Amino acid sequence: MHSRARLVATFSDRKEALLEELELVHHALAEAKQSEENKAWLEKMKKWHDQLQALVDDMPKNA
User: Fold this and answer.
1) Confidence class for position 11, pLDDT limits 50, 70, 90
2) Alpha-carbon gap, residue 61 to 42, rounded angstroms
3) If both were cysteines, with which of 8, 47, 52, 59 could 22 make a disulfide (CB 3.0 to 4.6 Å apart)?
4) What mean pLDDT do residues 37-50 have?
5) pTM of the model
6) Helix, strand or coil for residue 61?
7) What is the pLDDT of residue 63?
8) DSSP assignment of 3-15, as one string?
9) Handedness of CA 59, 22, 46, 44 (dihedral sign)
10) Helix 39-58 to helix 2-31 angle, to the nearest 10 degrees?
11) C-beta separation of 22 from 52 below 8 A
């Protein structure tokens, strides 16, 4: 059981870190200037946002 508790704590910590990263990416996207110059960067950020969201969504709910 001790290793299970440690695993749950690790998942919980990782999920918290992913949520913080997701918030930062979301904020960067909201603040980014929409321009042709930033188009490629914005697409990468949107893809990163979607990947982070998928990771968070796939994590166990109790972790």
Assistant:
1) confident
2) 30
3) 52
4) 93
5) 0.71
6) coil
7) 52
8) HHHHHHHHHHHHH
9) negative
10) 150
11) yes
Asked if residues 15 and 63 have their Cβ atoms less than 8 Å apart, the reply is yes
The pLDDT assigned to 2 comes to 73
Predicted confidence (pLDDT) at residue 40 exceeds the cutoff of 80: yes
Least Cα distance to 34 among 23, 42, 24 occurs for 42
The total number of residues written for the chain in this structure: 63
Q: Which amino acid is at 24?
A: L
Q: Go through 23-62 and write b for each residue having 16 or more CB atoms within 10 A of its CB, e for each that does not.
A: eebeeeeeeeeeeeeeeeebeebeeebeebeeeeeeeeee
Position 28 pLDDT exceeds 80: yes
